Amino acid sequence: MSSPAELHAAITDDVSTVLIGNEAVIERLSISILTRGHILLEGVPGVAKTTIANLFARAIGLEYNRIQMTPDILPADITGTHVYQENTGKFILQRGPVFANIVVADEINRATPKTQSALLEAMQERHVSIEGDTLALPDPFMVIATQNPIEMEGTFALPEAQRDRFMFKLTVDLPARDEEAELLTRFNGNPELGPEDIERVVSSDDLKAARGAVTEVFIDEKVQSYILDLVEATRENPAVEHGASPRASLAFLQAGKARAAIHGREYVIPDDIKALATDILAHRLVLSTDAELSGDSVADIIEDVLSSVDPPETSINEEPRPIEQAPDGEHESN
C-alpha cells in the first residue's frame, strides 16, 4: 500500500465502519498527514469532531492524545515540565500530551492566548522547549484543533499567526436526514460502536512511502502561477485587510500535490487548486471593517477571488483516461 490513493482508500473504508458521511473531511486529513499539515475543525457540538480525529489516528496506528482546552490550563500542561522526585531528590522530565502523533486541542479558543501560543513552536518547528531543553516531537506529528462557532462567551479568538499555521480550516456540518437515519440504525444494533472498533490499516512504512510519492508529483509552472495569482488576488481585494501569506502558497503547492496523488494522478491540475481554495483561505483572510459592516463573508470573498482569476490552460488539464486492451495484446491509451 505504497500509493497515496491506496492509503486514502484504506483509511476511508476503515473509518466508514463507524463514521457516516464527512468523506471530504477524511480526504483533507489524509492530505494533511501526507504533507505534515495541521487542521482546524469547526462545528456545533455533537457532530463528531473529536471522534473523527480519533478514528483517523486509529486507522493509521498513530498515538493519539486529546487536550481539553480550558481558561485555567497552563502551557506546561501541554508541553510538560520537570517534576521533583522525593525518593531520588532529583527532577525528572514529565512530558506533556503534545508528545503524540496526533494531538487534538479540543475547543482551542477556550484557552488563554498564552496557552494557545504553547502550540505555536510545536506546530511550526516540531519541537518544544521545556525549561531550556529542546525536545523533538514524534514523526508524524499533526495538531487537530476544534472550535464551537455558537458558544463564544468566555473564549479567546485565535490570533492570525496561529490560524496561519493550520493548513486547512474545515467545517463539520450536521448530517443529512438519511445519514442520521443510518446513524440511528447502526447504534441501535451496536450501542457500543466507537473508535475501539477501528483496526489499523496503514503501517509506518506505508505512510513513509506514500509521503515520498507525494513529493514526486509534478506541478506545471502554469499551475504554480495560478496559485500565485489566487494568493495575490486575496491581497489586492478591497474587502480584505490582510490577504493570504506565503505559507498559504506553500499549502496550495503541497496539498495540491497530495490531492492529485490521492486521486491517482502524477500531476496537479488547476481543479486541485480550486477544490482546496476555501479550506486553505477561509481562516487566513482578515476582512476590512467596511466589508464586515456591509455583511460580506469570507466565503463570498473567496468566491470572488476564484471567479476573478482564470485557471491556466495546460496540456495535462484533464483527468487521466483508463488504459484499454488493444486487439494485438498491447496496451494503448485512449
Record keyword descriptors for this entry.
334 residues, alpha/beta, Rossmann fold, Helicase, Ruva Protein, domain 3, 5-stranded parallel sheet, two-stranded antiparallel sheet, 14 helices, 43% helix, 16% strand, nucleotide-binding, P-loop_NTPase, ATP-binding
Task: Give the arrangement of secondary structure elements.
Elements: H1 4-15, H2 23-35, E1 39-42, H3 49-60, E2 64-68, H4 75-79, E3 80-85, E4 90-95, E5 102-106, H5 113-116, H6 118-125, E6 127-130, E7 133-136, E8 142-147, H7 160-163, E9 168-171, H8 177-189, H9 204-215, H10 221-236, E10 240-242, H11 246-262, H12 270-281, E11 286-287, H13 289-293, H14 298-308, E12 323-325, E13 331-333
Parallel strand pairs: 1-8, 1-9, 2-5, 5-8
Antiparallel strand pairs: 3-4, 6-7, 10-11, 12-13
Helix pairs in contact: 1-2, 1-3, 2-11, 9-11, 10-11, 11-12, 12-14
Domain AAA+ ATPase: 35-176
Keywords: ATP-binding, Nucleotide-binding
Region (Disordered): 308-334
Summarize the structure in words:
- This protein is 43% helix and 16% strand.
- It has helices at residues 4-15, 23-35, 49-60, 75-79, 113-116, 118-125, 160-163, 177-189, 204-215, 221-236, 246-262, 270-281, 289-293, 298-308; strands spanning 39-42, 64-68, 80-85, 90-95, 102-106, 127-130, 133-136, 142-147, 168-171, 240-242, 286-287, 323-325, 331-333.
- The strands form five sheets. A five-stranded parallel beta sheet has the order 2-5-8-1-9. A two-stranded antiparallel ribbon has the order 3-4.
- Helix 9 (204-215) crosses helix 11 (246-262).
- It is of the alpha/beta class and 334 residues long.
- It holds the Pfam family AAA_3.
